[in-house]
Amino acid sequence: MATPPRPRTTTRDPEELTRRLTAWLDTRLPGARATGVSVPESNGMSSETLLFDLDHPEPPLRSCALRLAADPDAYTIFPVYDMKRQYDTMRLVAEHTGIPVPRVLWLEEDPGPLGAPFFVMERKEGRVPPDVMPYTYEGNWLHSASDAERAGLEDATLRIIARLHDRFPVEHARHLEPPGDGSPLRRHVEAQRAYYAWVVDGRPRSPLIERAFDRLEELWPDDQGTPVLNWGDARIGNIIYDGFTPAAVLDWEMAALAPREVDLGWTIYLHRFFQDLTVSFGQPGLPDFLRRERIESRYAQLTGHIPRAMDFYTLYAALRHAVVMLRVAYRQVHFGEAAVPDDPDRLILHHDSLAAMVQGSYWS
Fold it and tell me: Which domain of life is it from (predicted)?
């Protein structure tokens, strides 16, 4: 299974970052310095993560991770990266739900020290289902696990999502409601439309994405239920597992107040994205893992809420993912790593499955 070179994620100098981080730490904890600074292989493209040890006689934490807002010179994936929003969300989720969110330690909103806002949090040990090569492909710990072990991981993950939706007090999530008029779902979708408009500003538009937005309107759910706090990037690749038990739930940048099914659709489709990709390369993948019907059924058992309009929400997940992938592709174009094809829809790796969802044939 061949994969293209990993797109550039930063233009920053790691040694310069280490020097500036140590200088900043001294202002928060005099005499402290960062040692063993490293960048994980799985570093994302919407932000950057640094791992380091805190060298101090009485450190509040020894092993730390730093989440740094995207490099503004690196053709950012999102137009805004609100570190305080993510910091506050993680703190509140840990406080109100008991979900294993890393302890957040310091927030720095001034871009001066490291070139962008950031926060420092506890670093958790464990293992994460890989994206590259995807966990659905042979040769990684999750693929090599037994069916029972994967089933246990799946159930533990769904329990995390159910607990978040059921236990987090909505009054503490009002600041996460997308701006605008209408229901939380309408606001959420309109925010995605605005994001798409930003992605294609000065670039070729995607006819497929625009058809998908039209199809959403045709499938719009009559009953959206009571909104809850959504994790936003609800997938197993954003969890550190101790064995097969969640040890740390990460990446809260897309958290929002929305229907429960927004998270469920994302969980279902992001697995299908990797599964479909693996099958396209002639491998069986993990066809019995994270199946849609089982996720819906188990979630209903855990919460008493029967998921509704899931064709809408899985399409919405595939559409949102397509907009992100289009931005990533245009970022590669920006850095001279790729060229725009005659059909810009070909830049979307899952264009076939998205087209099938628009046509209503994907789940049949």
Answer: Bacteria
